[in-house]
Amino acid sequence: MAAIGNRGTVTEASGFNPDDDAQKLREAMKGAGTDEAAIIKVLAHRTIAQRQRIKLAYKQTVGKVRLEKDLSSELSGHFQSVVLGLLMPVPVYDAYELKAAMKGAGTEEACLIDILASRSNSEMNAINEVYKKEYGKTLEDAVCGDTSGMFQRVLVSLLTAGRDESDKVDEALAVKDAKDIFEAGEARWGTDEVKFLTVLCVRNRNHLLRVFDEYKKISKRDIEDSIKREMSGSLEDVFLAIVKCLRSKPAFFAERLYKSMKGLGTTDSVLIRIMVSRAEIDMLDIKEHFLKMYGKSLHSFIKGDTSGDYRKILLELCGGE
Prior knowledge:
By secondary structure, the chain is mostly helical. Helices cover 69% and strands 0% of the residues. The chain has helices at residues 18-29, 36-43, 48-62, 67-74, 77-86, 90-101, 109-116, 121-135, 139-146, 149-159, 171-184, 193-200, 205-219, 223-230, 233-247, 249-261, 268-278, 283-294, 298-305, 308-318. This is Annexin.
């Protein structure tokens, strides 16, 4: 029943009663009009595990109808997307987002990058399992059918969940890895992207942080700067995301949220995905990094960039200033 992380803004509701919550949601949708405030009050303040129990209670007490189906027919737009996202278990939501990113013409590369570059091996294995079960094909087949070239190879490497997750740092290998990357990029004409892939997608975090330090000594540049100089497009984006997630996942997500809201228009798909998927894991850290990096609170950004019930539910997930 506990929350899935200990740095989330959404924590376990005390005195939780799934039957009561199911009833409240039913009342909120009965008759003409919908009581959106009541829906927000329940769903934005329950953990994913608690929401699964509410779904079960709803089906048992209200009859054959699934809660998602009722909510889907009552709500619309971005608010609906947030609510339905909150009702999905984590790997189900990730798989759903990946599927949506590859649907129809064109691909939302940002979604593939955000998810595949930031999930642990166990999270990735769970996503692969769900994807196959829900959509009848492997995630690898889907990604291969929708992407190409080196970008595809990096994504496939990430989704096979083969990263070493130990804490071991091999000093001699760290120096060699840094040298290899330098020689594969800055030190030559053209770039040997495979070398970047074999180091960045396979080694453990502690080891790679040492590699990045060594790399700076050799090249007099941060690895991120070299990636920007050596690559472009989606390949640049995915390698940068990997490095940033290794340095700090909360900082990576803070930057993604900032970019989704700055300037004209909002990239709502990114905003929704991060708010829904991180609310119970590390939203407190994301907010801290956001404030430190941009001098304004995430709360104020969301407030200024969204409206209506969509804004209200995001602000609840954000958890105050």
